[in-house]
Amino acid sequence: GAVVSQHPSWVICKSGTSVKIECRSLDFQATTMFWYRQFPKQSLMLMATSNEGSKATYEQGVEKDKFLINHASLTLSTLTVTSAHPEDSSFYICSASLSPAGYGYTFGSGTRLTVV
Amino acid sequence: GQNIDQPTEMTATEGAIVQINCTYQTSGFNGLFWYQQHAGEAPTFLSYNVLDGLEEKGRFSSFLSRSKGYSYLLLKELQMKDSASYLCAVSNQAGTALIFGKGTTLSVSS
Asked: pLDDT digits over B35-54, tens only?
C-alpha cells in the first residue's frame, strides 16, 4: 500500500519549453506532497510543500513562478518547470507523508529531466 | 538552523561490517530515517528511529541517541549490491518534509 506513481520517468526538452511532472497517490489520499530536486552526486533538496486546495510553500531560493505546483485533488500533485534551461536538468522526486494514518514517507520513482 | 552531517564516501570489502554515522541539529525531532538510494532511482526505506536505542532488521541496524543528536546505520555481511548512497533524514514534525543529509556513497569491493 501507500504507492505514489510519478510520471514521466524521464523527459528531454528544449530550452524555453515547459515540462509537467505528475505525482499520483494510488491507494491513499495525499493531503500534502513534497517536491525534491537532486543534482548528480548530491542529496535531495526540498523545493516546496504542496497542500491540496491551497498554494504551495516554497523553500528559500526556489522560484515559485518558474516551478509551478498544483495540488487540485487529494490524489494528484503536479510540478511544471516553465521556460526550462539546461541548469534545470536534474532528478525531481515527489514524496507524501503517511501521517497521521501511519508513519513514514513514500516516494515517487523520480523524473530525470534533461534540458537541451 | 537545520544541519545533518554524514561522511561523503566510505569503502569496504565484501563480508565486512560498516558503520555510517550521522549527526543532526534540527529545530524539532519526530524521528530519524535511513534510506538507500541507487543512482537514478528513488530512495528506498531502510529504518526509522524515534526512541533511543538500536533497531535491528536483518543485516541492517540503526542506532539513535537523541541527547547527542547522533545516529548510525550498521551494515553487516556486506554484499556488492550494497554499493549505493545512504541518506540520513530527519523529520522535524509529523507530516512535514524530511530534511536530508548529503548522503554517504558506499563502495563495496570484492
From this structure: 999 988 999 999 999 999 99
